[in-house]
Amino acid sequence: MKTGVWLIGARGNVAAVSIVGAKAVASGITETTGMVTAREPLSDLALPEVDDLVFAGHDIRSQSIVETAEAASASGGVPPQSTIEAVRSDVEAVDSRIKTGTAINCGQVVGDIAEGNAAVNQTVPDLVSAIRDDYESFVAEHDLDRLVVLNVASTEPPLENTDAYATADELEAAIENDDRALPASVLYAYAAVSEGHPYINFTPSTGSDLGGVREVARRNDVPHMGQDAKTGETLVKSALAPMFAGRNLRVLSWEGHNILGNTDGLVLDDEANKAGKVKSKDGLLEEILGYETQSRVRIDYTPSLGDRKTAWDHIHFKGFLGTEMKLQFTWEGSDSALAAPLVLDLVRLVAHADANGESGVQPQLASFFKSPMAYETHDLSQQFEQLREYAHTYLPET
Amino acid sequence: MKTGVWLIGARGNVAAVSIVGAKAVASGITETTGMVTAREPLSDLALPEVDDLVFAGHDIRSQSIVETAEAASASGGVPPQSTIEAVRSDVEAVDSRIKTGTAINCGQVVGDIAEGNAAVNQTVPDLVSAIRDDYESFVAEHDLDRLVVLNVASTEPPLENTDAYATADELEAAIENDDRALPASVLYAYAAVSEGHPYINFTPSTGSDLGGVREVARRNDVPHMGQDAKTGETLVKSALAPMFAGRNLRVLSWEGHNILGNTDGLVLDDEANKAGKVKSKDGLLEEILGYETQSRVRIDYTPSLGDRKTAWDHIHFKGFLGTEMKLQFTWEGSDSALAAPLVLDLVRLVAHADANGESGVQPQLASFFKSPMAYETHDLSQQFEQLREYAHTYLPET
Amino acid sequence: MKTGVWLIGARGNVAAVSIVGAKAVASGITETTGMVTAREPLSDLALPEVDDLVFAGHDIRSQSIVETAEAASASGGVPPQSTIEAVRSDVEAVDSRIKTGTAINCGQVVGDIAEGNAAVNQTVPDLVSAIRDDYESFVAEHDLDRLVVLNVASTEPPLENTDAYATADELEAAIENDDRALPASVLYAYAAVSEGHPYINFTPSTGSDLGGVREVARRNDVPHMGQDAKTGETLVKSALAPMFAGRNLRVLSWEGHNILGNTDGLVLDDEANKAGKVKSKDGLLEEILGYETQSRVRIDYTPSLGDRKTAWDHIHFKGFLGTEMKLQFTWEGSDSALAAPLVLDLVRLVAHADANGESGVQPQLASFFKSPMAYETHDLSQQFEQLREYAHTYLPET
Amino acid sequence: MKTGVWLIGARGNVAAVSIVGAKAVASGITETTGMVTAREPLSDLALPEVDDLVFAGHDIRSQSIVETAEAASASGGVPPQSTIEAVRSDVEAVDSRIKTGTAINCGQVVGDIAEGNAAVNQTVPDLVSAIRDDYESFVAEHDLDRLVVLNVASTEPPLENTDAYATADELEAAIENDDRALPASVLYAYAAVSEGHPYINFTPSTGSDLGGVREVARRNDVPHMGQDAKTGETLVKSALAPMFAGRNLRVLSWEGHNILGNTDGLVLDDEANKAGKVKSKDGLLEEILGYETQSRVRIDYTPSLGDRKTAWDHIHFKGFLGTEMKLQFTWEGSDSALAAPLVLDLVRLVAHADANGESGVQPQLASFFKSPMAYETHDLSQQFEQLREYAHTYLPET
Ligand SMILES: NC(=O)c1ccc[n+]([C@@H]2O[C@H](COP(=O)([O-])OP(=O)(O)OC[C@H]3O[C@@H](n4cnc5c(N)ncnc54)[C@H](O)[C@@H]3O)[C@@H](O)[C@H]2O)c1
Ligand SMILES: NC(=O)c1ccc[n+]([C@@H]2O[C@H](COP(=O)([O-])OP(=O)(O)OC[C@H]3O[C@@H](n4cnc5c(N)ncnc54)[C@H](O)[C@@H]3O)[C@@H](O)[C@H]2O)c1
Ligand SMILES: NC(=O)c1ccc[n+]([C@@H]2O[C@H](COP(=O)([O-])OP(=O)(O)OC[C@H]3O[C@@H](n4cnc5c(N)ncnc54)[C@H](O)[C@@H]3O)[C@@H](O)[C@H]2O)c1
Ligand SMILES: NC(=O)c1ccc[n+]([C@@H]2O[C@H](COP(=O)([O-])OP(=O)(O)OC[C@H]3O[C@@H](n4cnc5c(N)ncnc54)[C@H](O)[C@@H]3O)[C@@H](O)[C@H]2O)c1
Ligand code: NA
Ligand code: NA
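# sodium ion complex -> structure
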């Protein structure tokens, strides 16, 4: 059983660390710490083995995956240089399978990274059909049993007029008519689900979160999910906010300040591209608390940090007898080390869903996302519970 | 419907702020922020009104409740001076109902606070019968429909040989034979449940967590619960630790440092009395994570902080590809402001349980305690869920 | 010996707390903690007594000083309500001496605060002569021995073309010709020094930091100093940065994030007004370190904090063998409580300088300012040393 | 000009990183960041070149320097593995010159590390003469122009009765009479200064801080200095405390909590050995502030951190109008990376002092120590100033 993994943004940090990590896990030189699917009860499911994943993808820049991994290693220690060495040839093989994608409507800063490589001038129908061809050639060439498409490309500026693509018909007409407003992430997502490939959106870009794409996915019985993997500050937020809610402590303000130094930081330093990110990091608070509160998320680019991200959150709250109190935290994480195992988890879990006939958005994957496209709650513990319940549905009773 | 609330340690900080707070809530001059029972779905239950609570209790020192409240106000701003003024005469009425308790086996530092007031030289059977009389006179005098006994006295040194009191028979024989090892908290708890009064242990002292007391409670159909209210650092721990577990991130060490300046801090500065506290703050980590990890809880006495407690926690963890990361938090809370609303919640909820024929330890109250005597999980969100489920059992479907 | 203190922005937070504080010190109900002049060796100088200070000033809004103090007390506990009560009538007397100032070129947000009260439409020469009259009437009416003018008004947007006012002649011609670019702070400062009154600029606004004003001050033998009192994050910066320099540790990045909730915060939330502030907070790092480093200062408005400001600084540095390390700090201060004693110190010290024939910018006051107009170093300890040396010049040898 | 460097504790972390670092600096593969002597004006002095330092020393354990460096590299990343590789043979040459020292009165935990290797049963006069022989053979064999002895051995428990060794005569009589109370550090220090070798005590152990040793040093015109290098939390303390003093802000409490995971941490986990350390970390606050304040320094052993030390300090202070405020900091440093460059600095600077006829304790080196044996102030900036002044004495005026 070979499962193909098509990464949009395959030469970025998250992709590179995911690929290096998958190869390292497969060859037994690293542990599975950080992978949710390595833990019970998920580890008891019939998931594709990490060993059986075949990687490929789109990117728009020429820096190779190994180069990205080495730069990440130098700037933040992840992956360790020795691990890169051990899997170098495997990773180079993946690199040879990367196709040039499109940077349409990805913003100026992404355009700069592309250095003119990316297809932006072709018509939209041509772009979509090129993407489709890339997917299908890969499946054919490697004789894959299934292909999962996963978006880890740079965050795009938000798509404004989403209502115009609320149905499959509207979306397909827009593509047909070369609608120049459609962003790359939508084209990749549409191409995936229309071909029957499960799709995961690891980023805050639109991707499959558009009426038209959702309808095509449902029509084709394809599972998909997004948006924006929950790896750092927001993860902590979704663990902590339920404490305030459950104890009826009133959050007066929640200030978050993120500093990070990798390419993702550089892209998010651009106000347009940042817009989507901040929105997605900020939404869950109100839902968990049940009221609106003063909240702000700053993301600043601090090159010296490399792939290491630090977040400081300052939570000012009120308790009994009007007493004001505070919780502050700092989170010092390696973005890619946090993201990469989730990439592998999501690939394995959406493949499992697909194999078992689940289709449309996948609420059991809500814990993985800052803005889950379908969910019951933003409360992290309860989201984990939902995932465990999904697993138990597929497990023999014990 | 009048519900009596008998507080062991009625002149302490937590008690004083609970009483002042209850009076302030009853008279509408403060909000119910911080009270779990003021939130849906609990607020829909038929709970005793805060207005209908009648307070009394035991203590061993002579400082009055108002004096304690004023000292707390001066040193930490809680309760506000204006609130104390507004309810002064109500609180003085409570003070006139305080009886002198016993400080037997409460350690040197508590003995010092007692200044010779507390009964320690009487025989154990005499102590128990005096306590019983105090409870029953209060019920009679105020024509109470129900009496809840709640322990907010200073933390005792742990009782060593708990096996010797594993059954009702053993415990009752020990009392009868004037066993000088029994600590005050057990005598208060036994007196309560043997008289049919629901009992809550807000502290890490033994209280009802003894085979013999549990058996008497079951025999008499009395609900009870403990130990050690979860108000600060441990509360945060139980919200955060599930995040590490759920994401398969390996906690390498979890260091906690608490500094606090109130009488509780002074008592906990004594190594013997601290022993029970640290144990109770430390236990839940292993259960949530599923493995043992290096963990430490320091409690230091810093008088300048008054009733304000600051905790610093440093969590060192490992993720994918061996990557080491960190989460640190500081918690700056007012101990009493956090504790007092929970005192009111627990009184109301255990009264509800009693009214509805629930008996023995009450797992639905697990979220309130660092070391719940009965529980399914230490995961805070799931404990909240359990409490909501309890509520829904008693609520008409909607 | 009566010393007049004319505060520009006399109804703001800093002014209100300074006035309330001075009255409280004078009447012995509060200590002098926080006042540099209350410490040896400065306390040995022949400084005007706090008791002998007579306050008045300009403002543009109608909220009274007591109202400002009460709002500050409610939102941040400073000054304590009881202190306000004790000095209320004294403070009301000051309020009756407040004159309406001008808000010319103070930006939109200050204009909003003025609610049309402030003079903006008069000609510049008229504005200057009105200000002069206000100063002189106050001196005459109260028979003052000396008048110190101190600017604690809202931060203005920076004045762009400072070169146009590099000499006294240019500046005076501009005033004469009704140059509409001159901001309020320059008019107040010019009016002060041209009348022979020592002047202090507590804010980042231009004030006396303009060639023309400096020349007039020198010509008239008037001491003056600024800019922007060093009270919080920058104070800590100037204490810490020399450590990195002295140990040859390389600062890779220094990120600062300030959140604050008072009117100052609201004004600084405006990008134009913020510009001056951020510049002044940021400059000293390079001077102390001796090289340029990545540094950023964020100021965000968080109303829930009231007058309490929290700053988080994250310092990433490199040591021996390329080792990367970190220092992080959080500073939780009351802005006005930090600023007010310095207002009193500066008044007393500039009066002393004036009495002793010192004129022009006053380098011995450098420790008080983020951007001292004359200084040898930004190193806080060395700035303190300079102030001690100044004192020793005037003290008999011991 | 060859300068010998004799390290007591030559196989420990600090020693190993110093030796590796010196070799790396000498061969140009690393920068001199972190070395105070690499900065102006010190870099203008005629100091021994790092290239010309010849290392040797005593230790009591068998683990080689390279093994220590590799363990440090694995647990904390310092020194980088590639650096160790580059200088491996040089370092192995140093290792071959290590002699077995004595562990007399170094406490149980050090005894355990020694595994029976260290001389403890010989008489004191024999121990001293063996140490002397080790020094002199090294000088002779390598034809050294000067030998500097520097103590980087584990911290000993404090020597109790220091008065008994207040003079050279008393000390020498005690040695002669085989006084079994004398600790190893004193023997090493006495042997050094009595042979005319400059001596530096990098640790809190007694070393040369004993009347008798001081007298011998003066008699022999030998410069020496100590104690306890100021590298982490205390360094920051000495930079920050002057800010509170200078601004007349009252420190109400200063709590420090250090967690560290290397062998030093293990040794300090022993209460006896910790005693000296805590004392030395704690002393400077009172001197800088001018009054006693509640202060505490916790040191806890957290193996997961390896050579990385984290300190959290919580400073509670009071300002104007009784306002309570806070400064908190966390310091995340690599102990050895901070210490090693100072070892090289101190060797170079004490050699310079010796070459220039300076003798006895060296106050210009105060900035390097937590408890300088001679000093004017604990204020870090002023200590730096003193060092600069020393340099300027030896530099041509410019
Ligand atoms: N913890 C995390 O790292 C994390 C968490 C949540 C979401 N994300 C999101 O994941 C994405 C990737 O993060 P990263 O750190 O790898 O960023 P990155 O900048 O290192 O990588 C992005 C890659 O996408 C490529 N790319 C950009 N636009 C493209 C397009 N239109 N088509 C194909 N390739 C394109 C870039 O060339 C680059 O190689 C970002 O959107 C980020 O916001 C990351
Ligand atoms: N957030 C919190 O404040 C919190 C949280 C969990 C547990 N607790 C526990 O609650 C208890 C009370 O805390 P506090 O801050 O009010 O302490 P406190 O010291 O202010 O009050 C304790 C009171 O108990 C009295 N007392 C002591 N021994 C007694 C005895 N044997 N019989 C009767 N009275 C006795 C004392 O005289 C004092 O008035 C402590 O055990 C504490 O550990 C408090
Ligand atoms: N720690 C500190 O608080 C601190 C430190 C350094 C500098 N400052 C500066 O001090 C100033 C005052 O701070 P604050 O907290 O009192 O602010 P605030 O907003 O409370 O007070 C400013 C006052 O100035 C008045 N004002 C504005 N423009 C004026 C004008 N042109 N003429 C006369 N009055 C005018 C306003 O009406 C208001 O009453 C600000 O510029 C601030 O940046 C404050
Ligand atoms: N930043 C810092 O690392 C720092 C700062 C100030 C002081 N210090 C002090 O420096 C010393 C060394 O620190 P470290 O981290 O290298 O510790 P370490 O435990 O790694 O090394 C100490 C070495 O000393 C050896 N030793 C112990 N007793 C000895 C004896 N009597 N004779 C000869 N050798 C002996 C041990 O075998 C070991 O090799 C400690 O006392 C520490 O407190 C370190
Ligand atoms: Na399907
Ligand atoms: Na003058």
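# post-check
The longest helix of chain A spans residues 335-355.
Residues 233-333 of chain A form a domain with the Dihydrodipicolinate Reductase; domain 2 fold (CATH 3.30.360.10).
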